[in-house]
Amino acid sequence: MSAEKTKVTVAKFGGSSMSDATAIKRSAKVAFDHMANVVVVSATYGTTNLLLKLVDTAITDSWKKCQEILSDIEDRHLKIASELEASPNIVEEMKTVLRELETITKGINLLKDCSPKAKDGIVSAGERLSSPLMTVALGELYEDKKVELFDVRKVIKTDDQFGSAVPDFNLIKTNSDKHLMGAKYGELVYVTQGFLGSNEAGTTTTLGRGGSDYSAALLAEGMGADLLEIWTDVAGIATTDPRVCETARPINEITFQEAAEMATMGAKILHPTTLTPAKRSGIPVFVGSSLEPDAPGTWIKEESKDAPLVRALANRKDQSLLTLSTPDMLHQHGFLFKIFEIFNRYQVSVDSITTSEISVALTIEDSTLLNKKLINELENFASVSVEEDLSLVSVIGNHINHTPGIAQKLFNALQEGDSKINVRMICHGASKHNFCFLVHEDDATMAIKRLHKEFIG
Ligand code: ADP
Ligand code: ASP
Ligand code: MG
């Protein structure tokens, strides 16, 4: 895959493409070869998890334990900086982030409490530390252009929902026009942070785990880019997670609809909201491997050459099934309204739902159950039963809701052999791109393998 010279390209590199000096140099070469105008990076591999551990440790443990994690973060980043022969300015820039990290951690550790705002201050440090490293590696390759580190918080403006902030597209557009024109017209190359933004007051926010893909798409939209490239550790989107099913094979071309369905239904390769800005602005997306940049990868476009009945399988983990039952539901109106009003108030997203005369079954993320008040409120209207540790397995493709016999084929495949897979809930008919069902998480891999064999081969 090669980009044409005239194209404005935003390229994003995920954590595994930023794991050490070698990976960063390799990724920089990919960005250089593809003439990326803006390069968006994730934190180095494992750093965001380490920062989350730092938050937990600061709340629950000693300052000494916090210092151990802080030193680990500092050592791994300064080691890469030294291997890349970063200038003293860049090292100073990184040390400023490290000092800030230490100060916030100290505050949390003293209070033994962490506000969502402070947590975003900490987790955002990963990208603030990795982006200077990419700036150095990319700067080494360019002779005719200046490579600059750009603070993404000047452009990605969001609301105040720390941890899962919602971007303001209009402001992003205005700010892109204001700040990114140098990169758009090719005089400069900007390296910037994925995952973070800032609210109206300028305080750092984050877009949710895996959010760097979304950041890159927002910047591509804001700049009016011609192409968005997502570089990761697998050569494009496959028919299912290649780590789960060895017969998974790469997909060369897929529609926005199908890929968005995959991302929403758990395919980790893309953050679920990534494709919204790209689709809205008609920007094609390429997904490829920074390890094998010449492999064909996957093109995500408005339309694709083929529209198979089953394109892919996805698995959304950590699901709970809530079953609400009450005879009051029979021939009554307003019951669903009442319970959804409660979910709305607690800002809980319901992923799938089925109803009968006297009961409603719906799925939510396992972590939502930590909020006992939500369940108590629901119990005012109905008896509530909860099943945890489930997985929502999806069959994704085209015309799925209008194809006779697909359900029968699917259930036959799940029941084949000695170990029959118990299906807890089915959602079929609402989407022409998706048929999903709920199984115990221990059965999800087997369900995917069997369905892959049956529908994809
Ligand atoms: P990055 O750090 O580059 O953002 P991620 O780990 O977030 O990378 O996403 C890449 C991973 O997504 C792959 O290693 C793979 O295990 C997983 N994945 C899940 N579903 C798919 C799929 N359908 N095709 C390819 N990869 C998938
Ligand atoms: N570093 C963040 C995370 O690990 C964002 C990203 O990598 O996309 O979730
Ligand atoms: Mg990712």
Account of the 3D structure:
With 457 residues, this protein is α/β, with parallel strands linked by helices. It has a domain at 9-233: Carbamate kinase (3-Layer(aba) Sandwich), CATH 3.40.1160.10. Helices cover 40% and strands 21% of the residues. It is built from 15 helices and 16 strands. It has an eight-stranded mixed beta sheet. A six-stranded antiparallel beta sheet has the order 12-13-11-14-16-15. Helix 2 (47-60) runs antiparallel to helix 3 (63-83). Adenosine-5'-diphosphate binds at residues 14-17, 42, 210, 232-234, 237-238, 240-243, 267-269, 312. Residues 14, 210, 213 line the site of magnesium ion.
Major beta sheet summary: 8 strands, mixed
* Poorly predicted spans: none
Radius of gyration: 23 Å
CATH class of the domain at 9-233: Alpha Beta
Q: What is the overall shape?
A: globular
Q: Helical stretch count? A: 15
Mean pLDDT reading: 94
**Oligomer kind:** single chain
- Could you give the count of β-strands? 16
Within CATH, the superfamily of the domain at 9-233 carries the name Acetylglutamate kinase-like
Beta percentage is: 15-25%
Terminal CA distance reads: 27 Å
CATH topology of the domain at 9-233: Carbamate kinase
